[in-house]
Amino acid sequence: AQSVTQLGSHVSVSEGALVLLRCNYSSSVPPYLFWYVQYPNQGLQLLLKYTTGATLVKGINGFEAEFKKSETSFHLTKPSAHMSDAAEYFCAVIISYNTDKLIFGTGTRLQVFP
Amino acid sequence: DAEITQSPRHKITETGRQVTLACHQTWNHNNMFWYRQDLGHGLRLIHYSYGVHDTNKGEVSDGYSVSRSNTEDLPLTLESAASSQTSVYFCASSERAGLSYEQYFGPGTRLTVT
Fold first, then answer.
1. With an 8 Å Cβ cutoff, are B90 and A98 in contact?
2. DSSP label at residue B73
3. Closest Cα partner for A74 from A103, A41, A44?
4. Phi, psi (5° rounding) for residue A85?
5. Residue A3 half-sphere exposure, CB side, CA atoms within 13 Å?
6. Is there a contact between B42 and A105 if contact means CB atoms under 8 Å apart?
7. Are the C-beta atoms of A49 and A32 separated by less than 8 Å?
8. Is the pLDDT assigned to residue B98 strictly greater than 70?
9. Contact (CB<8Å) A101/B48
């Protein structure tokens, strides 16, 4: 069965510092993986996704993630944090390819300090 | 611009009352989903639909029902509200399964059951 683990429910960084949000997955089929961002009092918005092909995926707002099959990981990074990056981030894995159903991790809240 | 809307944005109700949360999308998407978001649990799938007159149970469907009479709407009904159903509810939609896999989320409804 598919599952997602996000290590660290809260991550704090200084503005300009590297952002690293961790996601590990378990999947019985080759995984399709997603990162969503939720700004305060808003719905979720897709940051990036990995389905097939290149394992380093670039998304919006300067974020990227690398699919590492050997480590069953899909960590999200950004070289330099900005105050506007403060939000909650969710990693998700697809349950099956013909349903679009997702399993979400429990989320990581990113705080950015000036 | 296409969008997905939810109403009401905030609702307070009493235990035992029937409550209906509305979800309307203008993307013309086949798939629609209802999630609840709770601290420590991330997003959990309540019900979903792949088209008109199609509905399916998700992982936390007890006490909830949906119906799909047209493409645009998927209302979520709490038959007899319980305090355990206090949560933030998100509706999402996606194209026909197996295309982009991206889900588009509404802004959420915060429901309090007293």
1. no
2. B
3. A103
4. -80, -10
5. 5
6. yes
7. yes
8. no
9. yes
CA B67 to each of CA A59, B49, B50, B56, B61: distance values in angstroms, whole numbers, following the listed order: 35, 9, 11, 10, 13
Cα separation, A67 vs A44, in Å, equals 21
Contact A24, A90 (CB under 8 A): no
Give the tokens for residue B63. Answer: 């006490």
Q: Which two tokens stand for residue A95?
A: 């349950």
Q: Tell the burial category of B114 from Cβ atoms under 10 Å away from its Cβ (0-12, 13-18, 19+).
A: exposed
Say if residues A88 and A107 touch (Cβ distance below 8 Å).
Answer: yes
Per the DSSP assignment, residues forming a β-bridge with B7 are B22
Report the length, in residues, of chain B: 114
When mean pLDDT is compared across A26-30, A96-100, A109-113, B12-16, the lowest value belongs to A96-100
CA angle A30, A92, A65 (to 5 degrees): 80
Residue among A97, A100, A101, A104 with most chain B CBs within 10 A, to mutate? A100
pLDDT band per the 50, 70, 90 thresholds, residue A22: very high
